[in-house]
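Input for the complex:
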Amino acid sequence: MYKKLFLSIIFSLGTVGAFAVDVPISGNVQSRCIITTDTPGVYGNPNAYTLTTATADGGVLPVVRYDVTLADAYYAEITTPTAFSDSPSLSDTVTWTGSTEVQSLSDATGMGSYETNKVTFGQTTQYDLTASGSTWFKSTSTATYGGSKAFPGGTYTANIEAICVAK
Amino acid sequence: MLKKLLLMVGLACLPSYSYSESIAPYYGTTGNAASTGNSWSMEGVLPTPPGLDINGVIYDYTIQKNVDDSVNVHIQNENAAGTGYIFRETDEWQSGSLGGTEIRKVVPVAPGIPRTSWGQGSIEVDGNGSVQDPSVVYMYKVDPCYDPQFDPNCPGYEIPVPVIATPEIEIYDATEDEYVSLSTEELILLEENEEILEDEEEKEKEEAEKRKRQLRLEQALSIVDNSEMFANSFAAAQQLAALDAATRVSQYYSLTIPGGVYNDTQVLVDKKIDDNKQGLRNGLAQQLLHEQMIQSQYD
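Predicted:
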């Protein structure tokens, strides 16, 4: 008799105190592919109508580093500039050329074939990051002003786009 | 006034800060060990402080090879305390990898390898290729308290006890000093004194020898006395035994047997002696046994 009474009291209390709760579930996905600018590029100006990163022409090659902690999970896609992000007003067209290649790597066995296996489409170069570790990519970029006209004086800035694409 | 106070506080804090820093482990890197070639001695690369522990090697170089060639490059240090290598990292440049590619690598090293074990370092190339612009840098950690006596704050520090050298004291003998001039009387006195001392020493020696001789003689005499005592007691015992025997014999010599007839004193009254029944039983039993034994020969 006493036990029944006790249970009924608890039940009534539970009924009175019932309410809905949303329990949050949060998670954090840490990127296994980190892109870092190792060396910012500099355009040299060997002649009035050319801007180039070639070292021989007074430029500095931009270098980007990919740090991958998960092997065979990403592509590195690096696109050399096709336009200035900042420049004086230009009245003529600019012709862009560029290329990317492996400068350094941290695993000779796993990354040694990156350069031979790369795929290039347009200004974009794609590498299959099959090994974990760090890889440094250097790019060249050349801008030639239309009709061999001289670039107007000012500061010119262009960006290389480096992205990590999950497979 | 406030500035002075702050300055004093700062000065008071400065020694304690620098003191604790002096025993804290610190990290560093060497220069490029391969700057002069593909082989190097660690004595010229590692800094001098004791307690140095190498914890990693950073190296980079550019491989020069044909695309179709396979080349192995070893970055290594011989084991100075044994055979083989204490550190060896191999890069396998397989066919398909392009020449002119640079490799940059950081290789951790398990701590605790004594610096004396780090032998000759080198870059070795197996295959048709070469390395260009190599750089090999060693990362290390230095524990100043490797030697606890480095600093009083180091664990295990023992307060040093100065070693005091025991001075050699030369006993000055004026008599042997050639620069000391003694008078004739003093010399005579010295000689007499020496003679007296020598005589006393001789006497002491003689007395000691005499005491020893006496002791030996006493011991020998005591042995003789013991044997003599034994012989005397044995002779006395023999004399007593002889006297005793003589006394017993002399009793018979002194008696006189009177003459006449000596009749038997024992008289058999009933003139018949019955057989002993127990003996009869015993005799019969023996007889039966005897007969059985004889009979057994024929059975």
